[in-house]
Amino acid sequence: QKEVEQNSGPLSVPEGAIASLNCTYSDRGSQSFFWYRQYSGKSPELIMFIYSNGDKEDGRFTAQLNKASQYVSLLIRDSQPSDSATYLCAGGNTGGFKTIFGAGTRLFVKA
Amino acid sequence: GAGVSQSPSNKVTEKGKDVELRCDPISGHTALYWYRQSLGQGLEFLIYFQGNSAPDKSGLPSDRFSAERTGGSVSTLTIQRTQQEDSAVYLCASSLEGNTEAFFGQGTRLTVV
Hints:
The structure holds 2 protein chains of 2 kinds.
Chain A: E1 4-6, E2 11-14, E3 19-25, E4 33-38, E5 45-50, E6 54-58, E7 61-66, E8 71-76, E9 85-92, E10 99-101, E11 105-110
Parallel strand pairs in A: 2-11
Antiparallel strand pairs in A: 1-3, 3-8, 4-5, 4-9, 6-7, 7-8, 9-10, 9-11
Chain B: E1 5-7, E2 10-13, E3 19-24, E4 31-37, E5 44-50, E6 65-69, E7 75-79, E8 88-95, E9 103-104, E10 108-112
């Protein structure tokens, strides 16, 4: 079992819709989680991090964490074509010694 | 510079040659990661350095790959006897500690011909 799993997609949503990106993790001891965005030909960059159960909002982005279900999600409201990218979920392993990345979900926002 | 610096940005090498890729992390960052990314694929973990601890080499695909980090700062990834399947973008990232925000360099695009 992969430690951090994501659906590779592609996920296609129309402009203005909500994009929902999901991630599960296997290490129950993981404490912190990150969402990175990677545009084609570019390096990943951090969008959000979340440490506590519940929701965390930042502009059009909401990260959700459910430690009981070992589930992390990223919602993008009012999706724009410029949001088209690969979104990488990452989690820290037990003890916080290493960040482990999922394979990423490709998102396409159609104008 | 304020960010993670990788060199060279592009490298074309002949099959069978050795190559060295360099990563200069953000000053003060104790954690350093190397990843490989093939076209259209996700990040493939290669190796992780954390402070003075023994590196986590669990992702290195073969004994042709090795990496070192000198003085807790600059890291070099060495690929011996390169093969065409080694062609990829090699990304380096550093973070303040093991499980905090990772900052990525711009990568080295390696092409083995």
